[in-house]
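Possible regression after last week's pipeline update?

I re-ran a chain I had predicted before the update to compare outputs. Posting the input and the new output here so someone can diff against the archived version. Not blocking, just want to make sure nothing changed silently.
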Amino acid sequence: MRRVVVTGLSGVTALGHTWKDIKKNMLAGKTGTRHMPEWTDIDGMNTELGAPIAPLDFTGRWPRKKTRSMGPVALYSVYATEQAVKMAGLTDHPVIQGGRTGVAYGSSFGSPEPMNEFADLLFKRSLRKITATSYIRMMSHTTAVNIGLFLGITGRIIPSSTACTSGSLAIGYATEAIRAGIQDIMIAGGAEEICPSMAAVFDALYATSTKNTEPHTTPRPFDQNRDGLVIGEGAATLILEEYEHAKNRGAPIFAEVIGFGTNTDGNHVTQPSAPTMETALRLALDDANLSPQDIGFISGHGTATEYGDIAESIATNAVFQDKVPFHSLKSYFGHTLGACGSMEAWLGIEMMRDNWFAPTINLETIDDRCAPLDYVMGQPRSLNVNAFMSNNFAFGGINTSLIFKKL
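New output (post-update):
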């Protein structure tokens, strides 16, 4: 089987857009959670919290011709991809447009703003606001398509619009495409833009945090005093490449993708199932030909919702007991939905390379209904690990698990 390595990685987040800045903010105990005053006038909305990206100005960066089909979510994904492509030494490289490079990318929805344009059509019987790009900006595969158009990619495109597993599923499917010999390089990741409509989905389920006057204290994954999730935004792109192809062109290699497992619960659209979550983790281990004791760290999904935290901890304990250090990065960035899988993979690789892993911030007292795990809390953990696992779970019972190895 062909090996798959990571030759570029980048993203945009609430704590900065480089690993250097993000790590600095993590060490300072900062989170991306903010009070969102623009949401306070929404009738019936309980949460007023979000984790928008740090300031990033796209003005004049690219020609209008390249950006007219992009809403913010596509802009985020293209920016992250541009930086990752540069890091991989692939800017203007002929392989990008030669048919052997593809894209696997996703978001939960696309840009929500064009919904207003279609609402005029449905409720005011007017096409006045609809433009030639309204649907292109809103469609669920807008990130994958716009990356492909921006770079002139002629290979395979795999859209992954599966809510909270969009980014991780994209990485997994991209890995399979390279392993199978279909592509030599895959641009993989996920993105999301913040919008009150995203928060409203979880607000209606009473699953959002309402610590509106104390944004720095939430979300609190696995904590007995958690009160729900915080919606965030961002993007992350990994450049995946066949190992020999990368080696022959002298590319930097940051990690190897050695395991991927995915399945569905087949049980309930919003309530996770611990047994099938456990199966996904075991599928990734089997794919990597590893045993649980070979994993040095686990990046958990950790949404800070009651059902999610409990089910995930039970599934993780069933495979690893309490032997492997475990954290949730959503405590820093909020739940970035379609972006979280790729963002957590990117930052997990950076931490593995630095031999340093951030704690789950705001985790102070573990909920006794959560299974015992080696929760990293309070202080960062210095660890020299050879492989880590990154897990994500989505509405519809979609479970993913990825394993990355240090090279």
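Follow-up from reviewer: compared with the archived run. The mean pLDDT is 97. Marking as no regression found.
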